Structures are given as C-alpha cells and as structure tokens.
Amino acid sequence: MSILTDKGNSYREAHFRLEEYFHGDCYAFGLFENYNRRITRHFNLTTSGKWDGKLLNLSESVIFNDGTMDHRVWNIEKDNDGRYTGQANGIIGLARGKMKQQAFHWRYRLVLPFKNFRFAADFDDWMWCKDRTTVINRATISKFGVTIGRTWLFFQRGKPDPGFLQSITANPNKVLDKTKI
C-alpha cells in the first residue's frame, strides 16, 4: 500500500491518498490560533483508522493543554469520482471534499463548545502530504463568514511514545509564544 503514488520521479506528480494515510495509527500535535493570530490553545491527538476499500472508519482522541478531552469517530466514504463525504459526532450534515494531488480539501460544519454553550462553526480544512509519514493540516474556522481562528496539526504515521496524549498536560499553564514558533 502506497500513501503517495508516483507517476514519475517528480514530487509534483505524486498524489496523496487520504484513506491509505489514515489506515492504521497516526498521532499529531496541534495548536489553535485565534482571529488575532495569537496561539491560545495546544493539543495532542491520536487516530486509529480502518479502510475497507470504500469506507474509512477513523477514531480520533484529543487532549488539550488544559486537560479537556474530546473523541470523535469519522466515517468517510470515497465515491467512484474520487470525492469524499464524511460523518462524525458533532458534524452537522455531511463533510464534503476531494483530493488535489498532494492535498486533501474538505468543508464541514462542526458544533463546538465555548464556555457554557455550544455553537456551530464552518471549517475549511486542508491537508498537505509532505512525505510518506508526515501530513500538515490547517483548518480555517469561521462563523457567519468571519474567520474566528485556525487550527494547525502536524501528523506522523505510527504509534506515539507511551504517554504522548498526557504529555500536553504536564504544564497546563504554559502559554505558547507565537514569536518562538
């Protein structure tokens, strides 16, 4: 199974395969950048996926630097035209996307918690495959067409070191300084 197919020797001709990359285990670290471009939150994430030739079942677990946890199970279907639709807990309607060579782009509406209430936000989500083991993910989050923030994730294939998810909470009061990133 090849995550990148290569029609020649040029990276520009390589194509990322979402369903193959996320088949098996992956882990990522990520951050949330607010509308002022200030990093306000960071998190660790693990995924476990199973691709059956038509449907990718992807389980993701997240722990944030404040100790808050989240778990989502995606069911992502690929049609014969190479388009994808996905459903998961918290998603309103369907996520819809497609591959574009080394990138995957999709959009969806997700219900997010904020203080003592929940609201729906629109996600414009891009994943770029750097190589066979690394994917960079940026999602622009908006409400009523106004950008409220972005998430950045840096995925690696394989199992993380033991304690990876909990390592983010080792210093829960730590605030990232964007100038050092």
In the CATH hierarchy, the third-tier topology is known as Lipocalin
Largest sheet: 10 strands, antiparallel, barrel
Number of domains: 1
Spatial gap, N to C terminus:
34 Å
Protein described:
The chain is mostly beta strands. The chain has one domain (about 15-160): Beta Barrel (Lipocalin), CATH 2.40.128.20. Helix content is about 5%, strand content about 60%. The chain has 2 helices and 12 strands; from the N terminus they run ββαββββββββββα. The strands form 2 sheets. The protein has a 10-stranded antiparallel barrel with strand order 3-4-5-6-7-8-9-10-11-12. The protein is globular and about 40 Å long.
SSE topology:
Blueprint: E1 4-5, E2 15-16, H1 18-21, E3 24-34, E4 39-51, E5 55-64, E6 69-78, E7 83-88, E8 91-100, E9 103-114, E10 117-129, E11 134-143, E12 146-157, H2 164-167
Antiparallel strand pairs: 1-2, 3-4, 3-12, 4-5, 5-6, 6-7, 7-8, 8-9, 9-10, 10-11, 11-12
TL;DR?
The protein is mostly beta strands. The chain is 4% helix and 61% strand.
Could you list some keywords that capture this structure?
globular; ten-stranded antiparallel barrel; Lipocalin; mainly beta; 181 residues; 61% strand
